[in-house]
Design brief:
The chain has 368 residues and is mainly alpha-helical. The protein has helices spanning 12-25, 51-67, 72-90, 110-127, 130-146, 181-194, 198-213, 224-240, 248-268, 275-290, 298-309, 339-357; strands at residues 39-40, 45-46, 107-109, 148-149, 152-153, 156-158, 272-274, 327-329, 332-333, 336-337. The strands form four sheets. A three-stranded antiparallel sheet has the order 2-1-10. A three-stranded antiparallel sheet has the order 7-8-9. Strands 3-6 form a two-stranded antiparallel ribbon.
């Protein structure tokens, strides 16, 4: 497994193509359509299938279908397999539950449900299959009902009783916070898809609480490496602002957030760097610029694109080749080939290439 820091020998289009081929040929997506959390190159095995990662991959496959010149139908076929897994195997219509994993189905996450709903909406827009819209609608309703707490949403519920799980304030994914706005964006998208404005009101409630709390999210942890993890979460918040990016408070938060994440990233990267954080930072620069909220810092964006391309793996093993490693610790590659890192990276690099060549930007709906 080889991924060279700063390696930029391939064109961006070749990089994106190889990443797409990794999704098709690596085995990260199983025959039933479910997608593993990541591949452990050091052990030669995938982790179990995750519904959240399947949702992300569904969005990535739809995006690849939208930009591909070759294998368009193959990408869509794989997207349909992922959508069918989520809508027919993972979703329990009687209990209105989307578990984190199916075996055992012990927990459900607010954040995951939003990501999966957005993935299913992407599948619905690409195929017209009303089943995907119906499940996304059910998920959106379950998010509003099952996870509701006083002025916020519980991050995790146990199953089958749907009781709140004890929180850990030092672990962002086990806490309620501004990062949940990325998933609340599913409500905005459902409002657009169905015309039901109650979903837009739900998004706006999370937006208000997120705007009032996000500035205290960083650094948020005494361990420096954990702060890098929290950059990932803050970038989810910034992505969640996009439906209202042109409004003054949201544009101000985007500007301040991009500056803050950039500063922390430069400080932390020599010891620990996550490729998904780098990809998210490049993406939000581009989307904020297209929205007219924050002018693009081209110098920083170019440097981030070049560095990000260096996280793509080269190997004779198709389970590795073309995927993106999760990150580096003290300069050494972490041997996890991640669907989320690969999805975020291929989209960031495709958008950057399109920006620099004058191609039309991706619609916000296509944000993975």
């Amino acid at each position: 497994m080889k991924c060279e820091l700063g390696c930029y020998t391939n064109s961006l289009r070749q990089t994106v193509t190889r990443a797409g081929e990794w999704f098709l040929h690596s085995g990260i997506q199983e025959s039933d359509g479910g997608v593993a959390r990541y591949y452990r190159a050091d052990r030669g095995s995938n982790l179990p299938v995750s519904t959240e990662i399947t949702g992300y991959t569904l969005s990535a496959l739809v995006y690849l279908h939208s930009i591909a010149t070759d294998e368009r139908r193959v990408f869509l076929n794989h997207a349909v397999a992922a959508a069918n897994y989520l809508s027919r195997r993972a979703w329990n219509a009687s209990t209105r539950t989307m578990p984190f994993e199916l075996d055992p189905a012990a927990f459900t996450y607010f954040f995951d449900c939003g990501i999966i709903a957005r993935g299913l909406l992407a599948g619905w827009r690409a195929t017209g299959n009303e089943e995907y819209l119906a499940v996304a609608l059910g998920l959106g309703e379950a998010m509003a009902c099952d996870f509701a707490a006083r002025n916020e949403y519980h991050p995790i519920l146990s199953l089958p009783d749907k009781r709140p799980v004890e929180r850990d304030e030092l672990r962002w994914s086990q806490s309620s916070g501004c990062y949940q706005l990325k998933s609340a964006m599913a409500w905005w998208d459902l409002a657009e898809a169905t015309g039901e404005q109650r979903f837009r009101a739900l998004y706006d409630e999370v937006l208000e609480s997120s705007l009032s709390s996000w500035s205290g999210f960083l650094p948020g942890h005494p361990e420096r490496t954990k702060v890098m993890d929290r950059l990932h979460a803050v970038l989810y918040f910034l992505e969640g602002l996009l439906p209202r990016a042109t409004e003054p408070r949201c544009a101000g938060a985007l500007r301040a957030g991009i500056d803050s994440v950039s500063t922390y990233f430069r400080d932390l990267a020599p010891a620990f760097v996550r490729s998904d954080v780098l990809a998210q930072l490049l993406r939000i620069r581009l989307y904020a610029d297209w929205a007219g909220a924050v002018p693009l810092d081209r110098t920083s964006a170019r440097a981030e694109a070049e560095r990000l391309a260096g996280f793509q793996c080269s190997d004779s093993d198709p389970r590795i080749d073309g995927g993106f490693c999760f990150g580096r610790r003290d300069g050494e590659c972490i041997p996890h080939v991640s669907p989320v890192s690969t999805a975020f990276a291929l989209q960031a690099l495709a958008l950057w290439e399109g920006h620099s060549t004058g191609e039309a930007q991706a619609h916000r709906h296509m944000l993975i």
